[in-house]
């Protein structure tokens, strides 16, 4: 056990990429201990990616890349400006609302930071906001990406914990709203403290237009329900509803109706049983292609090809991490390290609330050093038996783990969102880290609320019949 963990930590300190560090330390442990034939390394790594839910990974990544090149980010930004730009500290609120919308398409914090972050930080700096504030609010809002469905971490967690990915998606909706409100309250605090005004004049027509877009999107599922109640088949009702929506959007040229429809289609389709979460990822790609090639006509074959190659590169790195982490996690179990940690935690407490506090500290710490995918793959086999033994709902725990790991993305030494935003804003990593620190307050408050009020996570999946 000490050879496995020690080798991994030494390689990490030497700057070896996390996936290679896990694979190399696992191979070293197998060769020295003889606990299993060395061919097991390849067998377990292959088994780690032989999972149907993992098919969702490349498709969600591709959907996010396609949304970026389709010009959807600019439309989302324009919509958010019309909706909340007139408030004090307006572009800070715009930043958060834009991330909420983009989260419903990308599923990752890094895509949010790289896609919308480039537009938002430049706009905020042009309006006189400090670079530090612009980077801080962008980093905090990027954590919404994997909380509001769809979510790549939820796909990985659902596969590892053997729980419904659809229930995890629904479980992230209310926590995402709570995080949004806390972040907007933080922007309001800074706006009053620094006596900031609005960034766009208040306009009833603009606000009315934004409100109308939201109303149209919310009316869509209601219209489908009414048509079904009137005796129409669900498929026919959806075809008529989407056709009507497209005509309205084309005629009025709304900024973000089609973008806002992405999460409605994904969640609605899974709820109605049209497709699994994995198939929902394919639906997200089809919707992205439709927007870019047909509705907005901003894509070309060249840009689609670039998005595809970027997706292949990202998917390869994610799945390599999954394969390396799967053998590492398996060896932790075989070497009794997982059982020792479980026994140690249960020797401290049998109170589930105390355990959740300890788990938060552990996952936050791990998230600062290990990639999100690797952390989930390693920690779930260790912590899930304790979670089940203490009567904690695994869907609730999945939200807790994901939010902890998202906060870890904002910290050195391996916080990817931190490095992406440092590059976008042309700031040093040290200044970027300091800029993010005040935004840990709303994130930690959200973490405490999600941890100790389970119904924030569980109410919606129970209401929709996806959880007990």
Protein model, in words:
- By secondary structure, this protein is an all-alpha fold.
- It is 78% helix and 0% strand.
- It has helices at residues 2-13, 18-33, 39-49, 56-69, 72-84, 90-106, 109-126, 131-142, 152-161, 165-171, 173-193, 204-229, 234-252, 257-271, 277-295, 301-334, 337-348, 352-367, 372-389, 394-408, 416-425, 429-436, 440-452, 455-463.
- Helix 1 packs antiparallel against helix 2 (18-33) and helix 5 (72-84) packs across helix 6.
- The chain is globular, with a radius of gyration of 22 Å.
- The two termini are 38 Å apart.
List the helices and strands and how they pair.
Blueprint: H1 2-13, H2 18-33, H3 39-49, H4 56-69, H5 72-84, H6 90-106, H7 109-126, H8 131-142, H9 152-161, H10 165-171, H11 173-193, H12 204-229, H13 234-252, H14 257-271, H15 277-295, H16 301-334, H17 337-348, H18 352-367, H19 372-389, H20 394-408, H21 416-425, H22 429-436, H23 440-452, H24 455-463
Helix pairs in contact: 1-2, 2-16, 3-16, 4-15, 4-16, 5-6, 5-12, 6-7, 6-8, 6-11, 6-14, 7-8, 7-21, 8-21, 8-22, 9-19, 9-20, 10-24, 11-23, 12-13, 12-14, 14-15, 16-19, 17-19, 18-19, 18-20, 19-20, 20-23, 21-22
């Amino acid at each position: 056990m000490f050879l496995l963990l020690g080798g991994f930590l030494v390689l990490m300190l030497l700057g070896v990429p996390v996936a290679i560090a896990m694979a190399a330390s696992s191979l070293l442990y197998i060769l020295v201990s003889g606990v299993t034939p060395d061919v097991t390394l390849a067998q377990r790594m292959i088994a780690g990616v032989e999972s149907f839910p993992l098919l969702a990974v490349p498709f969600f990544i591709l959907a996010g890349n396609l949304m970026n090149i389709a010009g959807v980010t600019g439309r989302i930004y324009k919509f958010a400006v019309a909706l909340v730009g007139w408030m004090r500290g307006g572009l800070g609120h715009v930043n958060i609302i834009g991330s909420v919308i983009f989260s419903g398409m990308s599923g990752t914090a890094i895509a949010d930071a790289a896609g919308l972050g480039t537009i938002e930080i430049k706009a905020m700096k042009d309006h006189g906001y400090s670079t530090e504030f612009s980077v801080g609010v962008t980093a905090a809002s990027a954590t919404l990406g994997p909380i509001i469905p769809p979510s790549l971490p939820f796909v990985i967690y659902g596969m590892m914990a053997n729980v419904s990915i659809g229930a995890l998606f629904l479980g992230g909706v209310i926590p995402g709203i709570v995080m949004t409100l806390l972040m907007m309250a933080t922007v309001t605090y800074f706006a009053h403290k620094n006596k900031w005004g609005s960034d766009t004049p208040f306009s009833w027509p603009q606000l009315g237009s934004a409100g109308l877009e939201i109303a149209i999107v919310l009316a869509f599922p209601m219209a489908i329900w009414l048509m079904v109640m009137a005796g129409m088949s669900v498929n026919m009702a959806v075809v008529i509803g989407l056709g009507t929506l497209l005509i309205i959007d084309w005629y009025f040229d709304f900024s973000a109706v089609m973008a806002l429809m992405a999460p409605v289609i994904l969640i609605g389709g899974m709820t109605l049983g049209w497709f699994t979460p994995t198939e929902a990822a394919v639906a997200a790609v089809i919707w992205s292609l439709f927007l870019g090639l047909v509705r907005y006509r901003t894509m070309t074959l060249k840009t689609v090809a670039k998005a595809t190659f970027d997706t292949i590169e990202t998917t390869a790195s994610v799945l390599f991490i999954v394969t390396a982490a799967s053998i590492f996690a398996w060896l932790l179990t075989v070497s009794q390290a997982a059982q020792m940690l479980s026994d140690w935690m249960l020797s401290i407490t049998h109170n589930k609330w105390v355990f959740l506090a300890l788990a938060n500290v552990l996952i936050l710490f791990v998230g600062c050093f290990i990639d999100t995918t690797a952390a989930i793959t390693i920690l779930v086999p260790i912590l899930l038996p304790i979670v089940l033994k203490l009567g904690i709902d695994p869907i609730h725990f999945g939200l807790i783990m994901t939010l902890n790991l998202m906060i870890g993305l904002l910290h050195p030494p391996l916080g990817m969102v931190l490095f992406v935003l440092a590059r976008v804003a042309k700031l040093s990593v040290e200044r970027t880290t300091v800029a993010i620190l005040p935004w840990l307050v709303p994130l930690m408050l959200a973490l405490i609320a999600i941890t100790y009020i389970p119904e924030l996570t569980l109410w919606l999946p129970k209401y929709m019949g996806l959880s007990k």
